[in-house]
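Subject: two folds for Thursday's group meeting

Dear M.,

Sorry for the delay on this. The cluster queue was jammed most of the week, so I only got both jobs back this morning. I'm pasting them in the order they finished. Each block is the input sequence followed by the predicted structure tokens. Could you check whether the formatting survives your parser before we put anything on slides? The first protein is the one we discussed after the seminar.
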Amino acid sequence: MKINKQNQQIPQMIEMMFGEEVLRYSIILFTHGDLLYGKPIVELIKENSKLRRLVDQCGGIFHVFNNKDQNNREQVNDLLQKIDTMIEQNGGGHYSNQMLEDALRFRREVEERRLREEEERKQQEEIGRMMKKIGAEFEAQKRLEIERRKAKIQSDEEGAIVKFIHFCPGIRSTLYGSHCSRFSVWWSYN
């Protein structure tokens, strides 16, 4: 007996639609039991881990119909007996509209929480991008200000040297005379 991926996902899909409680009120119904050729379904369930997991998710309750023996009312009576047993195990109740409404409300709340968290994550990402941009702009302005100050200091130093040379005529003739290299060396230190 093969259990495909789609069949394995059915309990999760049912739970998602109707809530976690629904599987307590579910029975796995196998049809075409006649194709088992006398092999007990219990053995097949034990041998197949995927099938066993599927049955376990529904509380271990299952039933087999033999499609070739459609006049056999006993298989229908056995199914009804299993349904009665399941109802007793669940405190005499069945899956109700209130349970469905609770499941739907829970699903809405989960979805709303997911949407809120997604929106918060997007906002945090946007804030992060803005902070990064602001930081980059601040760093660029800081570099410009440092360059401006360096240029001002250099300009002030050049102006001070020119004033110094202008007010000291003896040095000016020395610097501009044959000793021009001293000016270059002196200039490079300041």
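Second protein, same layout:
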Amino acid sequence: MRIFYLWLNLSLFSILLPGFAEAVDLRISGDLVAEPCVVNIDSIERQVKFNSIPSRNFYLHPRSAPESFVIMLEQCDVDIAKSVSISFTGEDDSEQPGLLAVTGDAKGIAIVLETEQGEPLAINRGKAKFTLRKGITYLEIKAYLQASKKSIENRGVKEGEFSATAIFNLEYE
């Protein structure tokens, strides 16, 4: 009852003070497009897990072994587009620009992203082009951990848990 009463009072107030009313135009626009593919639901929130890696390994080899993952595009219509470019956005590592920064206890490392063919995918600026196939197209990506030169020189790779988040973007051509 109180809600109705308050609403009624506000309605009467706006009727009694018509000089304070103002007309506002509402403009709505957008683009309706035909997407050539549908991103597979399991690819939308992809998690990549690295096995335990001894920190001393980085002093001999600045990169870890790769962890591969796939972004699957389904129902691809090659009459709409012939290729797709993928790029990743996220927090740039301060010591290794173009690499994905990690958060957590681990220090001195960042994440490298590249295609299965070794083409780098620099965070916030790199992209790789893939040919679309009718039906299903697999975008195969590798992730590595890489120690910075500074952390290797100073023996500053610190053990601990880490995480990072990147968003992939697709551009069809």
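Two things I noticed about the second structure. The beta strands are 38-39, 67-76, 83-90, 100-101, 103-104, 109-115, 127-131, 135-147, 162-163, 166-172. The longest helix spans residues 2-16.

Cheers,
T.
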